[in-house]
Amino acid sequence: MLLILFIFIFFTSGLYSVSTKYLGGIRFDRIEDYELSNITILESGGIELSPQISEFFFSEDMIWSFEEFKDGFLVGTGEKASLIFVNEKENKKVFSSSQHILFSDIKFIKDKFLVSALPKATIFILNRDFKVEKSINFTNEYIWRIIPHQEKVFVLCGNPAEIYILDRNYKVEFSTVLKNEKNLLNGLFKDDNLYFYSDANVFYRFNYTDKKIKALVFVDENIADMAAHGNDLYIVTSISKAKEAQKKERKNTQSVSSDSDIVESPVRSSTTSSSKLYKYNFQSDTFEKLFEKTSIGFTSVYVSKDKIFITTDEDASFYEFNIKSSSWKFTNIGKGKFLKVLLVGGRLYGLLIEPSRILRIIENDYAKKGSFISGVFDCEVKSVFGKPIVESFLPKKTDVKLYFKSGMSQNEFYWEDWAPFESDNSDRFIKFRIDMFSDGKNSPIINRILIPYLQQNLPPYIERFEVNQFQNSFKLTWQANDENKDTISYDIYISRNNTPFFKLNDASIEDSSFEISREFIPDGVYYIKLVASDKKSNIEAKETSKVLGPFFVDNTPPTIKDVNFKKNSLSFTIEDALSPIILVNYSINGKKWERINPVDGIYDSKMENFVINFKDNVEFVVIKVFDIYGNSAVFQVK
Question: What is the 3-state secondary structure (H, E, C) of 580-604?
Answer without folding.
Answer: CEEEEEEEECCCCCEECCCCCCCCC
